[in-house]
User: What shape does this take?
Amino acid sequence: VRADLNKEFKEVEKQRKEVKEKVLAPYMQFEMIYKEYISEKYRSADNDLKKKIDTVESELKAKKEQEVKDYFEEYKTTNNIDFITYEQARINVTLSASMKSLKEQAKQFIDKIADDLKLIETQQHKAEILVEYKQTLNISNAITTVMNRFEAIEEEKKKQEKLRENELQKIAE
Assistant: This one.
């Protein structure tokens, strides 16, 4: 009985698969036509439009960035600062950022440098501090480094002078 049931089930299963193939055949044909004439065309159009949009956005962003760079260079020149670059300002130009805010960022960066230069002018070792400052654009670090260097030099001079005095004393004895 079990063997007959399995044989009968296999036959029914075979017929089910044939019916499924016949029922799905028109859908499979429709899906193939749909992909070829509709979905692929939409995808292709979407990709083309995306490339064109990206190109236009890149051009707009480049124009905006160039305008900010030009402003940066002009303002930098107005303040008689020749050692900084636009890249050091790290201004993030995006399409959504307003030109006013971007120019304000450039102005703030240059104003900070100008203020730092005024502070350097009031210092005792201004040339040395300026050299340090140009490397890092960090005023407190530049002043501290130079002051520590001069203190170390003075200490070394005192040590050398003490050694000479000790040698002169030994020779005198």
